[in-house]
Amino acid sequence: MSLSLNEIETFLDFTASELSISKNSISLETRFRNVPSWSSLNALIYISRINEETNVLITSGDLAGIDSLGDIFKMIKERKNGHK
Question: How far is residue 48's CA from residue 76's CA, in Å, rounded to a whole number?
C-alpha cells in the first residue's frame, strides 16, 4: 500500500504513529531530535517506513542536515515531485 504523505495532517498522523507519540504533541515546527522516542534506531526505521509508503528515499545523511518535521515533510514533497 502506498500512502500519500503530501498532506500535512496525513504526514503528522503517520509520524505520530511511527514514533509512538501523540499527534497533538507534534507539528511541522517540532525538532524531531527532541521527540522522546527519537533514537538512531527509530530514525532508521522511520525513514525506511517513509520509503515503503512513498517510494521516497531519505538517508541518515539527509537527516543530519535538517532539524524539523517540516523539513522532512518538505523533502518528501520535493522528492516525490522529482526534485532532489
Answer: 13
